[in-house]
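Tokenised fold entry reproduced for everyone:
>
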Amino acid sequence: MISLETYIFITILPPLFVCLITPLLSKNENLRDALGPVGGIISSYGAIEIFTAVLEGKNISIKLLQIADGIFISFDVTPLGAIFGLVASVLWIFAAIYSVGYMRGNQEKNQTRFYTYYAIAVHAALCIAYSGDLLTLFIFYEVLTFSTYPLVTHKQNELALKAGRLYMSILVGSSVIFLLPAIIWVWILTGSLEMSKHGVLDGYLNYEHAPYLLAMFAFGIGKAALIPIHKWLPAAMVAPTPVSALLHAVAVVKAGVFTMLLVLTNVFGIDFLSKTGASIWLIWLASFTLLITSIIAVYKDDIKARLAYSTISQLSYITLGGALASATATQGAILHIVTHAAGKITLFFVAGAIYVGAKISKISELNGHGKSMSLMLLAFFIASLSIIGVPPMAGSWSKFFLILGAAESGYLFVLIVFSISTILNAYYLMEIPARAFFLKKEKEIKVKIPVLITIPTLCTCLLTIILFFAFEPFQNLTSIMVK
């Protein structure tokens, strides 16, 4: 019988093996390209077993290496980690299949290098999900940053290299200047880097200093893309679309908001934040980020740029939910990681399909072309409904919990922010299929979308509906997290 601890390795090691084997198969494209989907299936098996075990109340932890007294490289699966690990591993299957269709369909160069670093990024994201202490979390947070740099700069042109410099300077700079000192501060206060279900700072941190420590964490977690450290994300859209999908749904930004929620719940603790009011400033900043980036998205004509600003806005829903320091809002924030991941990866898949199939990247160029790519635009429409929060799509559940949590916390202005943002979501997302189906075609374009792009896109689209009806296990696991 396989031990629960072994399932951690079954989940995190396949992408590492894919990374190591991929360069050896550079001359056998079919075998090389099959590694990702196979690795995703194996990882997903382990993640599902871990998810089920944590749901049953079992503890899964491993201490791999002791660095010093109280400092370890370790894995300890929290309910939040079990959810993030499941999301990252399952979506890797579809992203890996889609990547093959996109990279071949667009005749991209250096595909072996691309798949190698893609696998490292997934490995880092899964290790972040199961991190048992702040040191392990920080190490793999940085591995994720460095492994995605070659993906962002994949095209190796001036625009890509400039975006890569901005990407690295913001993400590495924020983590070294703010995140690492914040972790050291926690270690000095508590004598340990371990985390706890109800937080570790109560009784150690002066209440007056709590907002400053939280600020160091919030601005140190650059992957959560709060204003003013958000600019790396739109800049990174120069990368191939599978990278955009990886950044926005599977790994990078989800690792950012996962880390943010883990800090809010397992380092500070919901009760500690509520008692001290340390996160009030973060509520205002996340609300501001949420609204401003939604407004910016409305004015973006490039499809990926619009989706990038949409992502920043949706990430702020998650940060805001955690900052409200309410059990219900925190549940909503955790659930939004799941629902947004399924919806946003679908939207980026469609953006890539449109580019590969019709060489269209601008929304204004879509006019009248709906019939020639009807399946893809239907998937875009359904995923958009989920992002907006319309039943029976998965996103309606997470937004319901976020709204309920804001109401319970007494933050009327947050409810107003959610309402305005939802209207803006509907406008900037629905304009895309509306233009394609209802405006007059300006010129004829031959559209041919590879089947390896179509299939994973339809699967993730279907996932946004399935998650609405298969919502209970995720809700139960979030309930354990906030008890």
